[in-house]
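Study this pair:
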Amino acid sequence: MAFMHFDESIQMIQDLEITNYKTKKLYLVDALGYVLAEDIIADHNSPEFPTSAMDGYAINHEDMTLGRLKVGSINPAGSALIEKVIGGTCIKTFTGSLMPHGADTLIPIENVEVEGDEIVIKEEVPQGFSVREVGENYAKGKLLIPKGTKIDFPQIGVMASLNIVTPLVYEKPTVAILSTGSELLELGETQTNDAQIRSSNNYILEAIVKKYDGLPMQLGCIKDDKASITKAVSDALEKSDIVVTTGGVSVGDFDFVKDVIRELGCDVIFKGVRVKPGQHIMVARKGDKFIIGLPGFAYSSTVIALLYVVPLIEKFQEGKCSLRKVKAKLKEPFVKRAKKAEFTACNISLMQGEYYVDFKDKKVGSSAILTNMLGNVALLVTSEEDTSKTVGDEVSVLLLD
C-alpha cells in the first residue's frame, strides 16, 4: 500500500468543496462563537450628527476670547434640543448629547467655573475639541464585518449598534464520534478481564469537537464485528455531517472500518499518509457528508483529529483555521525518528517575545502515550525531508490554543 506525502493530504482537505452550506439566523447574543454567513454593512453613519464626547459646555469657538459666557439652557443626552448657541452664550451639554446648532466646540466642565447663570473660562481648548464628527465610528455603506468572521464580543457590540437582532450564521457541523474495539470499556463500566482497557478516544474527540466549534454526537464504543460497525457508521452518517471513528483502519484481521466505509458507498478521498503518529488515516465523503477514520492509539487519534477533523469542521463554516504555526527555538536537541512528517508533543514557553521548546517529561515510545499532551503543550512540526535538530535551531510549532 502506497502512503501519500502529508502535504498532499492536507492540500486535498483544503481543496474539498461543500455543495450546500447550512445557515440559520440566531438571536444576536446566541450567535457568539458562530461564523457569520453574511457581510455586515453599515446602513447609517455613526454618529449621524456631531455629538459631545464628554460633559461640558457647547460653545462657538470664536466666543472663547470673551472669557465669560451666559448659560442658555441644558442639553441632556437623548433630548431633542431646539435652542441654538448664539453669540456670547453656551449650552450645558452631556456625554452623548447632540451638539446644539451654532456650537463647534465642547469646553469641559473642569475648564470653567460657574458664577450664577454664567461660566468663566479658566483654560481654553482648540476648535472642535471633544466633538465627535459625523461617521467617526463608521460611515454609511462601509463593510464593517466580513462574511466568514467568527463572532466575538466586539462583533456583538457593533451589530447591536446597527440594530441587527438576528444575524445569519453558518450552522456548526454535527460530528458523530464512535470508537471501535471489543477491548474498550466505557466510563463506569466494570472491567472483567485484564485485556480490557478504558476508552479515552471518544471522550477526547468530543472535547476537541467542542473546543473547535463543532457539535459533538457521542456514540460510544462499538464491538469489533462488521455488522455492528456497519450499522453504527450508517446510522451516524444519517444523523451527522462528519463521522469520526477510531480504530479499524489498519491492516489487522479485525480492522473492519475501512471496508465498511467503502461498502456504504462513500468515495475514498485518501487512505494512508506518511505522518507520525497516525499514518493509517482514511478520509471519505458521501455527498456533503464526511467520514474520517482515525487510528486507535490515543495520542495518534488526538493528533490526527487536530490535523484533519478541525480543518473540516471549519470548512463547513467557511471559517479561518483555529490552529496556527509559529517559529520557536530549541532548548534541547530533537532526534528525528522517522522519514515522515512528525508531530511531536513538546513544552512551549514565551520569553521576551520569542517561543522556546523543550521536551521535559515527554516520553519516547508508542503512539499511545496520551499523557504527553499534558502541560503547556504544543506540537513540534517536522517534514519528512527534515533531519535531527540541535540546541538553538529554529523549528515550526503548531499552537493548540
Notes: The chain is about 15% helix and 30% strand. The mean pLDDT is 90. Residues 51 and 98 are 4 Å apart (CA to CA). The longest strand covers residues 341-351.
